[in-house]
Amino acid sequence: MNPAMLEKLREILPHITGYIYPNEIEVHWGLLIVVYPYITGIVAGAFILASLVKVFNVKEVQPLYRLALLTALAFLLVAPLSLVSHLGHPFRAYEIFLTPQTSSAMAMFGFVYAWYLMVVLLVEIWFDYRKDMIVWGQEEKGVMKHVHRVLSLFSKDTSEEALRFDNRALKVITIIGIPSAFLLHGYVGFIFGSIKANPWWSSVLMPIVFLFSAIVSGIALVILLYMFIYPMMGGKIDMKCVDKGMSFLFYAVIVDFSLEFVDFIHRIYQSEEEIKILGELVMNKIFFSLVIVQVLMGMLFPLGILSAIKIFRRFRESEELRKMLYFVSLILIQGGIFATRWNVVIGGQMFSKSFRGLTTYKMEFGGIEGLLYTLALLALPLVILAVFLKVLPPWKEFAKAPRETEA
Amino acid sequence: MKKPLQNMPESALRLVTVFAVFIVGTIVVVKFVIPPRFKDTKIQWADTVKTEVAKPVRYAGAVACTECHDEIVAEKKRGYHRDLSCETCHGPAMAHTEDPDNIKPSAPRDRKFCPVCHTFNPSRPRGFPMINPVAHNPMQACFTCHNPHDPKPPTVPRECSACHGEIARTLSVSHHVQLKCTTCHDVPSRHRVSPRVVKPTKPSSRDFCGKCHGQESPYKGSPKIDLATHGEKYVCWQCHYPHLPEAE
Fold it and tell me: Does the pTM exceed 0.95?
């Protein structure tokens, strides 16, 4: 064995408890695979938030609509990067399209992804921005004029009829988009839930739990971004919009929490042969990330804050206080959902299939599976989003040059 | 065909055009630009077969050995190593079959090879002969005591734990530690020589455990049950593990 691997093994071996098979010492799906469901979750969640405006006609969250779409696109572009980085051989990635393997859920990812990107997100964003892009293309000068003209596919028609068609198309695409968003993230949950050899993953509830945690993380991130970016661009946060968004988030967290609680009770009541080792896993190896970060800080604490805001008048009256409390709960919820992904992916590989022992996961710092690369990967969508915000400003009040500010 | 196109809103027309170009472009690229061997699994399979076939043949196969070494093969057929191929231990022998006089296959004559299978490892099947290579006759080559073509222990194991170590370790922490193996198992003497052909017995009736655990039992200090009502149709060891009865 090579010395580096031997050294790694020497570090891990003292942390192994009980009996495990030799091939279970190393956790093969590391941080990058944690990031993948986290990012796709945000994509699906952000899209669901956007659909609130178009399909369910929730007018209050209109300011979040375009931001949600752009966030979804920025994160969707990065989603496969973590997989490709983990697998290596990026130049072979296109082969999943050339030699489709319909019996493999993982191999179908390319098609689920392509459908969602091409048919749902890009088309919806295009229809929504079409009129604006035409206007920008006519008014602007320099590079941006051409960028907007190309992006609008040199479209020129801004007649009433054309705009009505845009609106109708948007509605249809959003209606197709909701099941597609469910498919995208439900699929990610299915990948884990369908692994019958792993009792921590194997559950029919998995796709649904994934979906609701996706909705939670997507809505939370878009509101967080709105609270950050909008004031930075010189606007005043629309508290009605944030209140409504947080209210949806509140219910999503409750549903998510209930689903996970049902899953938990179900496992305990069933008490199958794996229950002992899973109990040990939860109480020892992932106690901090599951009980403290995911459940207490990521769910119960924010739920407490949001309930307090709903119940006590003092919170409802002070905008500043509410903003601060929202901000804290949004950060906590984001951390909680990341911990959810961590607990599923890493937790599922920590116990032996012999149900008699536990291994441990040691995160690397450098290298492709390391912390540094992962942080870069998580920052990348924000960089892409910054570019999108520059090219496709989501808020009309800032879209025009400063000389015409409406505020 | 013209009319629907004219009636279509301009935006949709552009989008459809872009999609059509994209789809047609993809089809053209996939059909005509990408070479077939990149996308046709049949060609890929055929290529793999070609690559594999082109590799030099190094193994002669088990049958080739019987032609000259029939006595050893016959001996091996009777022993525990009957399922191993000659080349498992002697290495690839194709060259030897082609030039038997000058090229001789290797034979493991040190202590490194046999422990690959026979070092103690709890995941090996119960009863599989396992040793600790550090403590087991240090410095002696395995074949000085064991004939690899018909490997039998040179001396018959005295203790059951020599083969059933896992059970012995489990038993050592249980309340049944004081019981001898023969209290519950009848062990024919042939079991020591042919452990897989002649097997020890297990208690076949409920009364056997009842000797200590029945309500009328004179033996004190063991949990008592009413044999008439407790788990009526099962033999005790179908529910309780006798080597560690306190386990759930």
Answer: no
